[in-house]
What we know:
Strand order of the largest sheet: 3-4-5-6-9-10-11-12-13-14
EC number: 2.1.1.192
Number of helices: 12
CATH architecture of the largest domain: Alpha-Beta Barrel
Oligomer: single chain
Keywords: 4Fe-4S, Cytoplasm, Disulfide bond, Iron, Iron-sulfur, Metal-binding, Methyltransferase, rRNA processing, S-adenosyl-L-methionine, Transferase, tRNA processing
Bound molecules: S-adenosyl-L-homocysteine, iron/sulfur cluster
Shape: globular
CATH superfamily of the largest domain: Aldolase class I
Strand content: 15-25%
Binding site for [4Fe-4S] cluster: 113, 117, 120
Enzyme class: transferase
Number of domains: 2
CATH class of the largest domain: Alpha Beta
GO molecular function, one term: tRNA binding
CATH topology of the largest domain: TIM Barrel
Number of strands: 14
Structural class: alpha/beta
Amino acid sequence: MNERLNLLGLDNDALTAQVAEWGHKPFRAKQLARWVHQRGASRFDQMTDLAKDFRAQLESCCEISTPEVITRKISSDGTRKWLFDVGNNNAVETVFIPEDDRGTLCISSQAGCAVACRFCSTGHQGFNRNLTTAEIIGQLWHARADIMASQGAARLGTSSNAQATENDRIISNVVMMGMGEPLLNYDQVVPALKLMLDDNAYGLSRRRVTVSTSGVVPFIDRLAKDCPVALAVSLHAPNDDLRSQLIPLNKKYPLAELIAACNRYLDYAPRDFITFEYIMLDNINDTEKHALELIEITKQIRCKINLIPFNPFPESGLVRSSNARVKQFAQILMDAGVVTTVRKTRGDDIDAACGQLAGEVKDRTKISERMQLRKTIPIKEERM
Ligand code: SAH
Ligand code: SF4
């Protein structure tokens, strides 16, 4: 049997080309996209304003299919986490964080991650494979339908599977901060980003879609041209020596190159700053010396610093900085005029916080073994 074409994987260009191949006009692609992404249709017989023969054609060769949900948890603070089965014993996680003025969905881009950062539980699991565009968008499609259904049910006092209506903004922001390094799955991630922005799909503004990267320099440049969305860069250390020990990719793309790429990105970015994420690791990157070094970096680029309390997991061998230390560190930065925020940890009770997304990864590399060995190597800066 031929494999069905999963419509969740087609951005506007791909869908328009496909619809043309079937002999239909471009506006049919827009209608179809609205049914799939805005109205959350999962069956073709729901698409009542499409001609019957077109529906029959879609029925014969297409599907609208998301990865299966293995578990779904809701935290006491309203944070939700889904674990999706992506086949062959791999599972990825997606998190929804509701706040007063927005709802942020944190999406995964890979099963595992090959960057192998010392402080990241995904990194400790090794790498299996890239997710497809349909699997990336499937997380958004499903999360939206699920949240709509429970809100609809709460509103109506029933357990009806309320359909998503057009123009709702329950998910107002998407961040590629789940499992995986999005810029190492560039070809599948970019069409997914385009769908998030597409007015006939999710219609989010570029400022509300964020790619977070550990610093894959050539792809930062490509993203600037292909789909400039908000950029967050995982900095985590203010000098190359320390950063290379925390994020091995830094040996390939050291800080000077990374900052230069960020500066080039700003010419295209929807925001006039880059967000630098900085995990606070006790006695590793959180001293006054580090804060002063970080201030020097902020002089080279328009940026904001987001301090993230480290979320510990046993295999890391690392410890979270105390709240007092985080406050002191933030104060040094702010006194120097650096815009600094401290990330609130959400969804702690369901292990949904940053860096806790573990899913399940059948490692096809030797990364998880190597990480086991590395955890006993102390992190030391040569230059003090
Ligand atoms: N690969 C990308 C995006 C996924 S990680 C990246 O590294 O940017 C998303 C964010 O979670 C990154 O800033 C990452 O550094 C952070 N993170 C990873 N492990 C963490 C941990 N244990 N505690 C807190 N944040 C963590
Ligand atoms: Fe990969 Fe990001 Fe985790 Fe590093 S922090 S291992 S790049 S997911």
